[in-house]
Design brief:
With 393 residues, this protein is of the alpha+beta class. The protein is built from 15 helices and 6 strands. It folds into 2 domains: 164 residues, Gcn5-related N-acetyltransferase (GNAT) (Aminopeptidase, 3-Layer(aba) Sandwich); 118 residues, Bromodomain-like (Histone Acetyltransferase, Chain A, Up-down Bundle), CATH 1.20.920.10. About 3% of the residues have low confidence. Its EC number is 2.3.1.48.
């Protein structure tokens, strides 16, 4: 069965779209809402309705400080005390007025409506976020996200610090995840242990910053990518999610005879040669079974990598794949062509080459598996121009 590149791209595109929509059925609406909020905040900045400032207590350093800044420090202290009732007010005051800490404040009509209290550890390459809050009446307007993005830009552009650490309670974890924080800590423990405050019942989270991203404009870039994705989907899959009338009349008019797929509305452009190849599915299963039989050498590829045992794996490997996942994809009908199947075999090997050092057992196991898979693929799919890869030297 011959399938040209254009048809192959449509197959891959449709499969990926289906997978994305199944996993994130409501993400589209949420994304558009977030983008609209970001644009609304940007308009308020342009009209000078709101302002962002970095301030700190200069009095302890015997530096002059204007009364306006003193007033803002008092207001952000009050804001944190109200929005973070579990934190002792005296403790909040100690950090807000500490000259080692800085405060990013958001003012609207000369009133502080949001803030982030943080402490930079310049020599250790991270900043600790102590408090983060927006006044109740101004929440769900995009201010919280923009505050964090402004702080990211400040660190990237001014401080050259590329890591945030914070202890988040159960109510704040969702917010921090939305801002790009993860519970998988990549910063070496010796860099921060003993320097940041450990809060009982809270979860340590980290956010890594990229030096080339302008975070305060990220919603614009993300919106462009989102719109581009929608346009590409509309062009590539013109009939995707389109609804057609029933086909009962077609059967009645044809005396109940079987119809060719191309005679059914919405399937006019279908390639009649392209159908589920039971023999191909059987061959894919034989290859997966061959891998499973060698438990001594190939066991690392049987199951997904355990995130608890190797927490940094999923931060480093963006598209993990394993034999179990491939078996599930095979059962669900994901592999509509052998190229998709072979592409996953290649990805599984390449992930192993990428994550493990050449002298490790895992790397050598991948090399041995690659040699065996090349023989199996050439045996079962002799016309395929795609083969599992050996590592490049």
């Amino acid at each position: 069965m011959e399938i040209n590149n254009g048809t192959m791209e449509l197959i891959v595109c449709e499969n990926e779209l289906n997978n994305i929509q199944e996993k994130m059925p409501h993400r589209k609406d949420a994304f558009e809402i977030d983008a609209a909020r970001g644009e609304a905040v940007k308009r308020e900045i342009d009209r000078k309705l709101i302002t962002f400032r970095i301030i700190s207590n200069k009095v302890l350093d015997n530096r002059p400080q204007c009364q306006e800044e003193v007033g803002w420090l008092t207001q952000v202290l009050a804001l944190f005390s109200i929005q973070l009732p579990r934190m002792p007010k005296e403790y909040i005051a100690r950090l807000v007025y500490d000259n080692k800490h800085k405060n990013l404040i958001l003012t609207k009509r000369d009133r502080v409506i949001g803030g982030i209290c943080f402490r930079p550890f310049q020599s250790r390459g991270f900043s600790e976020i102590a408090f983060c809050a927006v006044t109740a009446s101004e929440q769900v307007k995009g201010y919280g996200s923009y505050l964090m993005n402004y702080l990211k830009d400040y660190h990237v552009g001014t401080s050259r610090i590329y890591h945030f650490l914070t202890f988040a309670d159960e109510f704040a974890i969702g917010y921090f995840k939305k801002q790009g924080f993860s519970m998988n800590i990549c910063l070496p423990k010796e860099r921060y242990f003993g320097y940041i405050k450990d809060y009982e019942g809270a979860t340590l989270m980290e956010c890594q910053l990229h030096p080339k991203i302008i975070y305060s404009e990220f919603h614009l870039t993300a919106k462009k990518l989102h719109d581009l994705y929608k346009c590409a989907k509309d062009v590539a899959l013109k009939s995707y999610n389109r609804q057609y009338n029933g086909i009962e009349d077609l059967f009645q008019n044809n005396d109940g005879k079987l119809l060719a797929p191309c005679e059914i509305p919405g399937l006019e452009e279908i390639d009649e040669q392209f159908s589920a190849d039971k023999n191909g599915i059987r061959k894919m299963k034989l290859i997966l079974d061959a891998i499973r039989r060698d438990k001594k050498d190939f066991w690392p590829f049987f199951e997904p990598v355990n995130a608890k045992e190797v927490p940094q794996y999923y931060e480093y490997i963006r598209f993990p794949i394993d034999v179990k996942t491939m078996s599930e994809r095979l059962k669900s009908g994901y592999y509509k062509h052998e190229r998709l199947f072979i592409a996953d075999l290649r990805r599984m090997l390449n992930n192993c080459y990428k994550f493990n050092a050449p002298e490790t057992f895992y790397y050598n196991a991948a090399c041995k598996l690659a040699k065996q898979l090349r023989v199996l693929v050439q045996t079962h799919f002799p016309n395929s121009d795609l083969l599992p890869e050996l590592p490049s030297l």
